[in-house]
Amino acid sequence: MVRRWEKVNVDGGPMPLRHNHSCNILDDTVTRDDLCIFGGVCDGKTYNDLHFLGTCVAPPPRECHSVVFVGRKLYVFGGFDKDNKELDDLYVLDADASSLEWNQLSATGTPPSTLHTRACKAWGNNIIVVGDVDTSNMSHSDVRMLGGTMSQSYAVELYFDPALENQVLKAWNVLARRQISTQLIEIESRPHLTLFWSDFVDVAKLENVLRLIGSKQEPLPLSFSSIGSLPNDNNVLFLGHTPSVSLLQFQSQLCDAMRKEGVEIGEEYRLDKWIPHCLVAQEVPKARMAEAFTLLRDLKLPVSGYAMEISLVEYQPVRELFSLTLGTHYLSEA
């Protein structure tokens, strides 16, 4: 193998000349390799600045583009390059990622024309583009929505005490070892019971609701006594919760508090429709459903414990936005 030196072109502002500096590659706690350069000296001046040389590719230079935040993600769409060529590409920068990195996204459907003087706003997890002026200076009143690409959804979940959580993890691991279902482990989810799910939430409002409701609620007793499936929903398997007055009352209080804040409750989470459960498998091959049921019977149901935390979680990837130990109000008074 022949090794050859090549000059690397980099973007960004130039780093002042220096020598006797340090240069290291960040370890694998980040999602890509970055060079980290600190300090050094040049012409008698000693530096204490820090520079990063990353491997990601930034969006091409542009003007008259649209920029909008959806949650903690920054989206850049369209504009014109230095030659006045129209651009219709879409890039995203996740402000909460372990390393800031641009990613180019693809979208289906007919995109808005590459125009300017448009209004571009976030609505839930969607981008709404209203009106524009084209290259012939013609005004438009089109309204277009970009959804799906911003794949985040939000869930309110109850997390379990360690003993109950370990019982559920045991089921996840058994199914994963048999290569029946590995998705819940791969997305780094936690065993949970979902109280609410939506694509359209005001995170700050919902956090306030959870603080109010969760701080006044003591840990909830839970008992999962059955195995169920949702064959029309990605072949899901779950542990069914034995109905309890305390859990139903808590769900009712939560929904009432969310409605007062203008949060719309999906039909499947209304009390007359809600099926409290804990997921144990997703996307199970139909040919292996019977095998999965047999393995889950070895759990020796019921498995019981307590819901100890209430959390607001973003999907996907899974990211916990807020978590509160149930009964914080009571604990503080004890």
From TrEMBL:
InterPro entries referenced in this protein's UniProt entry, alphabetically: Cyclic_Pdiesterase, Kelch-typ_b-propeller
Gene3D superfamilies documented for this protein: Cyclic phosphodiesterase (3.90.1140.10), Kelch-type beta propeller (2.120.10.80)
PANTHER family the record matches: PTHR36039, RNA LIGASE_CYCLIC NUCLEOTIDE PHOSPHODIESTERASE FAMILY PROTEIN
Protein name: Uncharacterized protein
